[in-house]
Amino acid sequence: MAEVDAAKSLMGLLNGITQKLYYDRSDVTEELLRRELFAHLPHEEFRALHERMRGLLKSIATADMDHAQLEAFLTAQTRRQAGGGVTAEQAAALSRFWKSQRVRVRESLLAQSRWEPGLRGLSWRVDLRTAARGEADPGGPVALVELELGRAGQDSQFVCLEFDESKVNQLLKKMSDIQESIDGIAHRS
Question: In the predicted model, what is the mean pLDDT of the chain?
Answer without folding.
Answer: 89
